[in-house]
UniProtKB/TrEMBL annotation, chain A:
GO molecular function, one term: acyltransferase activity, transferring groups other than amino-acyl groups
Occurrences of domain Thiolase N-terminal (ranges): 3-184
CDD domains associated with the record: SCP-x_thiolase
UniProt name for this protein: Acetyl-CoA acetyltransferase
Record domain Thiolase C-terminal: where: 246-380
Entry keywords, A to Z: Transferase
InterPro entries linked to this entry: Thiolase, Thiolase-like, Thiolase_C_2, Thiolase_N
Highest taxon above the source species: Bacteria
Automatic annotation (TrEMBL), chain B:
Domain ChsH2 C-terminal OB-fold span(s) in chain numbering: 210-278
Presence of keyword DNA-binding: yes
Gene Ontology molecular-function annotations: DNA binding
UniProt xrefs under Gene3D superfamilies: 6.10.30.10
Protein name (Swiss-Prot/TrEMBL): DNA-binding protein
Boundaries of every ChsH2 rubredoxin-like zinc ribbon domain copy: 178-206
Keywords of the record: DNA-binding
Organism the protein comes from: Acrocarpospora macrocephala
Domain of life (superkingdom): Bacteria
């Protein structure tokens, strides 16, 4: 069975959407995805709601609230939440529902309305209350700490990370859904205010309100809906505990395991050469550097040279984050699903001004934590 | 010690959306606003019809009176479902001013308004006893509608009692009373794990043997915290650190203090040797260590 993305939708992301409730925000993305697929809610067999910790928006079980606003009352609904990669974990749950025969057309809607709560304090509640929570700085403290360690060991310099900020913010200029559209220079990034040094303000994406929706179907069902399905040739999501023994945290083992599995399923042997485009979830600039290595786009220690080469910018041989990535918008629970939707748009030629010409094979990466939750997907115009 | 008390307190600015925003704003004007969905009327007003998902077609004012459909008596007062005259779905709210003997299903009720509106749903203090007095059918609100509230302030306060359990309990009893850190050794691979746990998460063998761990170790990774946030313990800038204590295979999250903030970026680095500075507090938590400090004469 081959499963495809047959419709995508995104809200206009913003720092603060005061015109809609959480349910209204999610609905906006769903309406666009149904329109894109030419379907109505009657055609949908099952709904997966993906969102961040309930602490973000002070609503527990928000899926109960959302289904009414979506017109999905009495349909099967589950909520999936798995750190920063929640949106991709939700898509994987939908894929498995279809593979298992429980549903034929599944809607995945992912959202977060981060303007409503206290972000870093909420994220700190992910930590063990006995071990680390009281000293945690969301994920920023330890993300910065392990970036600092990678500087020494892998050469992930502040300049290299600044190049990621420059590239992704420039890409976001061409994405109508991005809400931060402002160019920066390497010098401006390096001189920007430190938050958790070495992480500085311009290494950090915006905090956003936003939602994304994707509709999935298999084989003939997909072809009945659209002439241009975006086939998912591989998808996996792996995790490990925060406090495992013997972890240098220099490379993410869950990422390496997920990439190996998905590359095998999708027939990828030389990722840098084979992929036309990549959408990688970079909650801070330093993450994109580590993903280059974890995904095998370059050898360990090669990320700084790769970003400096310009090959991962638009016009290069493997543009990474033509949408602008998280730097354009970062509604955390939706962010990973946005990466998947953007990849689908790229391989079906629907990415508009940020289209990579002729793209047919896309790499998607998503995840949460510094290293412990990681997902990978391969999206293609060709059914495998 | 059996449990650790913690409190999570979070401030929010919630966005009610247009319909609920109008409903809340109009309560301050002592008017009850519903939303129109075909021939159905929902109050409080809703942006979307739950049975179809379609947006509301408009707003109407309802007479602030109705019929008690169900109720429950609690220690904090009476809660009831009120079917407002002209509405199709009952409204859960406080029921006030009734003698308990007069509380009956089917009783007529009318809005009781707060003396001073504060911008919350309690601007409608509740529904109290009422006669059959003249009302009006749902109508277009005269004089137009108030601008919707765009944000509502909200604070969530959650109190927890976390059980220490055998392993954390043994560790933190020793921390509190003896200033000792106690880990466990894996019966198979002999790794020392801190915090202690029942099974080794590398080889999955049981861990049986307790070992003392000296509060001395090495910085595995560190960053300099400049941002301020809710619940922060030290005033920035300070150093966030992931430490590996000597002899252990696990990480401990804490802070490195006692350094000049101006030199924080260079004074502490991966590989720096540190030791605990114990606090005067005896709480049975990692906060019993104020911070870790660099060890003079050792690598930093
Ligand atoms: Zn072991």
């Amino acid at each position: 069975m081959s499963i495809a993305i047959v419709g995508t939708g995104q809200t206009a992301h913003a720092r603060r959407r005061t015109d809609v409730s959480q349910a209204g925000l999610a609905r906006e993305a769903v309406v666009e995805a149904l329109q894109d697929a030419g379907l109505t809610m009657d055609d949908i067999d099952s709904v997966v709601v993906a969102s961040g910790p309930a602490m973000f928006g002070a609503v527990n079980q928000p899926e109960k609230w959302l289904v009414d606003a979506l017109g999905a009352r009495f349909k099967p609904v589950v909520r999936v939440t798995s750190g920063g990669g929640t949106g991709l974990a939700g898509a994987l749950a939908a894929v498995n529902q279809i593979k298992g025969g429980a549903a034929r057309r599944v809607l995945v809607v992912a959202y977060d309305k981060l303007s409503e709560g206290a972000l870093q304090a909420s994220i700190s509640t992910l930590y063990d209350p006995f071990w680390g929570r009281e000293f945690a700085v969301g994920i920023m403290g330890f993300s910065a700490a392990y970036w600092r360690a990678r500087m020494d060991r892998l050469g992930h310099t502040q300049e290299a990370a600044a190049m990621v900020a420059v590239k992704n913010r420039r890409h976001a200029l061409a994405n109508p859904k991005a809400h931060v559209r402002k160019e920066v220079t390497v010098e401006e990034v390096l001189a920007s205010r430190p938050l958790c040094w070495p992480i500085k303000v311009l290494d950090v994406p915006p905090i956003s309100d936003g939602a994304c929706a994707v509709i999935l179907a298999a084989d003939e069902d997909a072809l009945a809906i659209t002439d241009t399905p975006a086939w998912i040739n591989g998808m996996a999501y792996y995790s490990e505990a925060d406090n495992g023994a013997d972890r240098s945290m220099l490379q993410s083992e869950p990422l390496q395991i997920a990439a190996a599995r998905v590359y095998r399923d999708a027939g990828i042997t030389n990722p840098f050469r084979q992929f036309d485009v990549a959408e990688l979830q970079e909650p801070y600039t330093c993450f994109e550097l580590s993903y280059y290595e974890g995904l095998g786009l370059c050898p360990a220690g090669g990320a700084a040279d790769l970003v400096a080469s310009g090959e991962t910018a638009m016009g290069g041989s493997l543009p990474v984050n033509p949408s602008g990535g998280c730097m354009g918008a970062n509604p955390i629970g939706a962010t990973a699903l946005i990466r998947l939707a953007e990849a689908a748009m790229q391989v079906t030629g629907k990415a508009g001004r940020h289209q990579v010409p002729g793209a047919s094979l896309a790499l998607v990466q998503a995840g949460g934590g510094w290293a412990n939750l990681r997902g990978v997907a391969v999206v293609s115009s060709e059914k495998r | 010690m059996t449990t650790m008390a913690t409190r999570i307190q979070m401030p929010y600015t919630l966005t009610p959306g247009e319909a609920t925003g109008v409903f809340l704003a109009e309560l301050g004007r002592r008017r009850l606003i519903g939303s129109r969905h075909g021939d159905r009327i929902l109050v409080p007003a809703q942006d979307f019809d739950g049975s179809t998902g379609e947006p509301a077609e408009g707003f109407v004012e309802l007479a602030p009176a109705g019929r008690l459909e169900a109720f429950t008596v609690t220690a904090q007062g009476v809660l009831g479902l009120v079917l407002v005259d002209g509405a199709d779905v009952p409204f859960l709210h406080r029921i006030v001013g009734f003698a308990e003997a007069d509380l009956t299903i089917g009783a007529r009720v009318a809005a009781v308004w707060a003396d001073e509106p504060t911008g919350s749903v309690l601007d409608l203090a509740g529904f109290g006893p009422a006669g059959d007095g003249p009302g009006f059918k749902p109508r277009i609100a005269p004089d137009g509608l108030a601008q919707p509230f765009e944000q509502v302030e909200y604070t969530m306060t959650l109190d927890y009692q976390h059980s220490y359990g055998h392993y954390y309990g043994t560790l933190f009893d020793a921390v509190r009373t003896d200033r000792r850190l106690r880990g466990v050794k894996c019966s198979q691979c002999r790794r020392t794990l801190l915090p202690p746990r029942a099974r080794c998460d590398v080889c999955f063998a049981p861990t049986a043997e307790w070992v003392d761990v000296e509060a001395v170790g090495v910085v595995q990774a560190c960053s300099v915290v400049h941002i301020e946030f809710i619940g922060q313990r030290l005033k920035p800038p300070y150093v966030y650190a992931e430490l590996v204590l000597d002899g252990t295979s696990t990480r401990l999250i804490h802070m490195v203090g006692g350094i000049d903030p101006a030199e924080a970026r260079t004074a502490v680095a991966p590989g720096s040797r540190v030791r605990a500075v114990w606090s005067d507090r005896r709480t049975g938590s990692l906060a019993d260590i104020d911070y870790f400090e660099l060890i003079p004469g050792e690598p930093s």
